[in-house]
Amino acid sequence: MSERFLLNARFRPLLWLGMVFLATTTLTRLALLVATGSGVPATPANWAYAFAVGLGYDLLAFAYFSWPLVLALWLLPRRWLARRPVRIAVEALSLLLLFVLLFVAVSEWTFWEEFQSRFNFIAVDYLVYTTEVIGNIRESYPIGLILSVLALVGIGVFVATRRWRRIHGDSVGFGGRSWLVGAWLAVSVLGTGLVSGDMKDRRDNTYVNELAGNGMYQFFAAYRSASLDYARYYRSVPLPEAFAQVRRQLAGPGVVFDDATGIARHIDSARPQRKLNVVLVSVESLSAEFSGLYGRPETLTPRLDALARDSLLFTNLYATGTRTVRGLEALSLSVPPTPGESIVKREHNEGLFSLASVFNANGYKSLFLYGGYGAFDNMNQFFGSNGYEVHDREEIPKARIHQENIWGVADEDLYTMSMDVFDRAHAQGKPFFAHVMTTSNHRPYTFPEGRGPWPQGKRESAVSYTDWAIGDFLRRARGKPWFADTVFVITADHCASSAGIAALPAFRYRIPMWIYAPGHVAPGRVAALTSQVDIPPTLLGLLGIDYDSQFYGTDVFQRPPGKERAFIGTYQLLGYLRGETLVQLSPHRKVDTVRPSLVDDAGQPAIAEAPQLTLQAISDYQTAAYRFSHGLMRTAR
Predict the structure, then answer these.
(1) Nearest-5° angle of CA 148, CA 152, CA 156?
(2) Which of 114, 248, 258, 569 could form a disulfide with 264 if both were Cys (CB 3.0 to 4.6 A apart)?
(3) Element (H, E) at 336
């Protein structure tokens, strides 16, 4: 019976699509393997795993992908299928599916080039912001040429293989062919219930695990896991125990908790208060590895490197995540990266305790200034609902824009707008706290001509321009009446790349930070392990502000020895870094303990679980997720 189903002329287009599908996905996997280079050691075991496991995911993805053709071939009556117009319609559907398949293959290549992974949560997330994403693609790639080549290849393959899908007779009735559709449905349902996107992640090399996946399948798997409930998917401990553990981590000099169970507390600063302005610049994708101060032989940031002579330089700072919204979350809320979507983009994220809450309570004007359209990633809503006055690209007249792309205006234009806003705040006689978010160091990596000898369209060039723009900003700011009373904090929203052999390549998360305030903050170097969530309380400590706190971060200068740690993560994998140990929490209540590589892309071997570190990791992430979901992060009313 199965032979009749599969070889019957009615289903020849389905067989043809299956062969083309598997050929395309296999060639895509091979191309990505070649592109990865030394990231995948050239061993038969790695290749066999990637292609054998990958074949399983390809077959399941094909079962989903081919449903339009399956339904058409099942439902069309025999007499209809004998008519030329209907057969042309089946051919048109087959050609459309072929084009979709080829388009996905090219998209996978560009996504791998940027993120070194199959489609994941980032791809799902970007679908919400089609204007920016499609604009970025148009500005970064020769879309006309790519689509033309795809059309030629698609038509060429379609014509060359026409004999394999030719329908010339039909010997199976509706009841008989329904068996095939029933089997197709069973495979689809069982595959959905029994197979998950992370079942392939059995190798120590993350690149191999990614290659073993299928882009289409991984996309929809990421869509299903976009919202992850911590209590349901991650290892937990009793809440009272978790909160008690977090309180012990947050305890220190000048800390008085409000009650016996929560983390709300009052902090008395060890320094006298100084009402200085604060400008916090979070630079798009500024990895530490770009700077000579952090070991790069040929620095891309000479101006920032020179600034270190008069700055407090943090040399062991780690970003919490790999997306802008994660950096904004850490810098505004001082909270670990809870699983799934960032708090910046979740519902019911208004009225939260934030860095602006503290500054506003101390008579400051709090500002968020962005070089792009703040509707992207829900930035305007989030900051506007949590104590910040929001300014974005829409306020900049066209005549004052030196260069722009889909992500935003050139950094120098953002700084010009920012200084205008600072001038107005200063004229009102109020100190200001400003969080400035840049965009230039983002694909398509374009910037105004004449700023330096850097070719357009290269990441290294964009980093160099970003450095130039910061130097130009500080040069112009020195002529402002508010400059002498301003603390400048320059750091990154996240690292430039999160790819590596390890699932959580810790060395990639290292970011730089300069605190520059001549006459107010003494220059020096801070080598202690620091998390991005520690920046808000450390800054408040330097200003000598007493405040009520709900932060998970601590002032690095008041933190008792032995409590250094950093949070790093993806949307699913939650990392807790302390010393030479990295605890990784993942769905299915899985906990892995590894020896992290902090200097290069090496493997991170598994080590024996450290129960106390595991408890600390679980407690921080569990309580953070619980507090947000239960409305406990809100400011007191």
Answers:
(1) 170
(2) 258
(3) none
- pLDDT means per 10 residues in the chain (637 residues)? 55 93 96 91 92 96 95 88 87 95 91 81 67 73 88 94 81 81 93 89 90 90 73 93 96 92 94 96 96 94 97 98 95 95 92 97 97 92 97 95 93 98 96 97 93 95 98 98 98 88 92 97 97 98 97 96 94 93 94 93 90 97 96 81
Residues in the chain: 637
Torsion of CA 352, 324, 494, 126, to 10 degrees: 140
Amino acid in the structure at residue 581: T
Burial environment of residue 48 by CB neighbours within 10 A (0 to 12, 13 to 18, 19 or more) = exposed
Interatomic CA distance for residues 267 and 246, integer angstroms: 16
Say if CB 543 and CB 331 are below 8 A apart: no
Q: How far is CA 528 from the centre of its chain?
A: 26
Q: Which DSSP string corresponds to 9-24?
A: GGGHHHHHHHHHHHHH
* Backbone region of residue 401 per phi and psi (left: phi > 0; alpha: psi in -120 to 50; beta: other values): beta
610: its two tokens: 């450290």
pTM of the shown model: 0.85
d(CA 106, CA 49): 23
Amino acid at 122: I
User: Which among 469, 498, 478 has a CA at the least distance from the CA of 281?
Assistant: 469
